[in-house]
Amino acid sequence: MPSVRDKTIISAFSQVLREARTKRGYSQEQLAYEAGVDRTFISMLETGKRQPTLSVIFALAVALNQRPEEIIAATQKLSQLPR
After folding, report:
1. Average of per-residue pLDDT across 57-73
2. In a domain, 59, yes or no
3. What domain range is 62 assigned to?
4. Going by C-beta distance under 8 Å and a sequence separation of 6 or more, which residues neighbour residue 70?
5. What is the CATH number of the domain that holds 63?
6. Is the pLDDT of residue 37 over 80?
7. Is the residue at 17 inside a domain?
8. What is the DSSP-derived secondary structure letter of residue 12?
9. Of residues 1, 5, 16, the one with CA closest to residue 77
10. Is residue 64 in some structural domain?
11. What pLDDT, on the 0 to 100 scale, is given for residue 19?
């Protein structure tokens, strides 16, 4: 069972977020604005220094024009956690 601060999951989420942001053509500042969070928070998410809450995942998904479950599934796949 993964821990609350599982580095593999945090790293996978960071990579998924960064890739989704760049694929969309957003800067960290643009994504932060669209999601209603601070730009430094996006940076901390992308470097694994912070973890998002569920509501932040939903806000990021809307800003990235994705479904929250797509972000979670991509993170799960990248971290190679069992379903």
Report:
1. 97
2. yes
3. 7-79
4. 61
5. 1.10.260.40
6. yes
7. yes
8. H
9. 16
10. yes
11. 97
Cβ burial, residue 11 (10 Å; 0-12/13-18/19+): middle
Query: What's the CA angle centered on 53, arms 77 and 83, to 5 degrees?
Result: 25
Handedness of CA 5, 6, 8, 12 (dihedral sign): negative
pLDDT of residue 4: 76
The radius of gyration of the chain from alpha carbons, rounded to an integer in Å, stands at 12
DSSP code string of 29-49: HHHHHHHTS-HHHHHHHHTTS
How far apart are alpha carbons 77 and 83 in whole angstroms?
9
Q: How many domains does the chain have?
A: 1
User: 């069992």: which residue's tokens?
Assistant: 82
What does DSSP assign to residue 67? Answer: -
The residue type found at 45 is: L
Q: Quote the tokens at residue 41.
A: 């928070």
Could you tell me if residue 12 is inside a domain? yes
